[in-house]
Amino acid sequence: MEKTSSNTFFITTPIYYVNDKPHIGSALTTVTADFLARFYRLDGKKVFFAVGTDEHGSKIAQAAALAGKTPEDFVKILSLNFKQNWQNLNISFDDFIRTEEDRHKKAVILFLSKLKDSEYIYKGSYRGFYCNGCESFYEKTDLDENGNCKIHRQPVKLIEEENWFFALSRFSDILKEKIASNQIYIFPENRKNEILSFLNQGLKDVSISRQSVFWGIPLPFDQNQITYVWIDALINYISIIGFGQNEEMFYQFWPANLHLLGKDIARFHCIIWPALLLAVGLKPPQALFVHSFFTVEGKKMSKSLSNIISPSELIDKFGVDGTRYLLLKSLPRENDSDIQMKKLEDTYNADLKFGLGNLFSRVLTVALKHNIKNINPSKEDFPDLQKQVIQNINNYFEAIKTIDTEKAISAILHNITLVDILFDREKPWSLKIDEPKLKNIINFSIENLRLLSILIFPLMPETSFKIRKVLGLDTFEKLPTGALEKRLSWGYEKMTITSEIKHLFE
RNA sequence: CGCGGGGUGGAGCAAUGGCAGCUCGUUGGGCUCAUAACCCAAAGGUUGGCGGUUCGAGUCCGCCCCCCGCAACCA
After folding, report:
1. Contact A410, A392 (CB under 8 A)
2. What's the Å distance between residue A70 CA and nucleotide B42 C1'?
3. pLDDT at A241
4. CA of A477 vs C1' of B43, distance in Å?
5. What share of chain A is helix, strand, coil (3-state, %, to 5)?
6. What mean pLDDT comes out for the span A382-387?
7. Which string of DSSP letters, residue by residue, matches A417-429?
8. Which H or E run contains A165?
9. Strand B: which positions are within 7 A of a protein CB?
10. Residues A290-341: tens digit of each pLDDT
């Protein structure tokens, strides 16, 4: 079945496993998704932006027991923590799904029933190394040099149990074809190539259930087996838009336009998930963006190194918008990239405090010094520079198509520089009030600020609003189709400088 | 020889075979409207190594060295 509307945009982040805390990695994915969601709302799309938490599995059950809580109470608190973190980062999600919610469980049960009805499910046996302490299975590669569990340093047992299997192997060719032809568009390209080369080796079937786990969703056709958490988790992408419960909404948004994810979970999303969907007759997602990881001061982020940076640490230092900006500018695409506090501070100062912030102050100070409050930009205000501004805006749009946030930001910075150069060249502060050039300079600069306020909105919504308020402009989070282009045209509206100037960034 | 990506000034990146550029940082100068801000300039490179093709190679070819990603149920 086709999507019922071509104007919708369904975008997701992974649902985060509640056993880990939110860190700058999960914040990175989430902020990037928010940037896109906000952009597409401005661009006239009907956006559905989904986030959530993954709450099942034996690890959670153990952690809950350790904390002396029931799993239900335990995950509720942890899930809320994620939600609050995203709210703190001003994430404009449209819905937040928890795998413990009834609506999700219902969707999982329906999905698995359909899967069972397909010819792709069979019973087989699963072999793995079982650690009593962890109550979970490991692969050989997960064990330490003595073949013991890394956490408990205890010997593990090779256990074989009956599981239900999904015939993933039968999807190799169809997936290859769809990915190679970009019907399932995986990018950046290196990730697509990786997935394709993996597919070329042929796929093995995967087990979709566990016997030894109790915290999860029982299979509808075998109550003794619990749905394997990954299968459970992936289904969130359809349960959140009403799979099996709200058909109208579901077909409005499915297939997803874009799944965002980190490279660690590329396989599940690029192979297993599309195969599962195809098995039950649903369309695979249209696009998957796989980003790379941050290292911190040259080292992998890990609990054992205790070098994990939390979003709140960055917010304390750089504010919400500053944090969003720095994450987006640092988004690692093809390769991992290194985060260093010193560098983040440098970037914050150069781009925000002394770039955008300083520009805002100097432009408004000069305008008010000459008592110019009413701004009416025209095509005659430095047409050569206008051309460059428009070129940069085009570059910004192009960059967003490929989720190249660094390039999008670079386009914004270029427009800031244009005004700084103009000021230095024309020295408006020294001009007399009746010199016609003065008006052109102020017009150009303020109009550029207006355009910037729109361009930065998806990145830094609060800062955008601050600028607009001072310029006497309305604020908005979504626009009808085609309206963004109009609003980005030179001289779209008159402005009146209304309030006192405050610094944008401290 | 498992598959794939890459090695370019201190950092991050860019260059259909045609003067090796951009952003940040550093240094010097200018300016003083602006948040020690802004503008200009300079320094800084044998483009990982060796060889080859070519009038001309970061770019093409061969060999070598080094880094990184992926190699399945880690939720």
Report:
1. no
2. 67
3. 96
4. 47
5. 50, 15, 35
6. 87
7. HHHHHHHHHH-GG
8. strand A157-166
9. 2-5, 11-13, 23-25, 30-35, 37-40, 68-75
10. 988 888 877 777 766 677 888 999 999 999 999 999 999 988 888 888 888 8
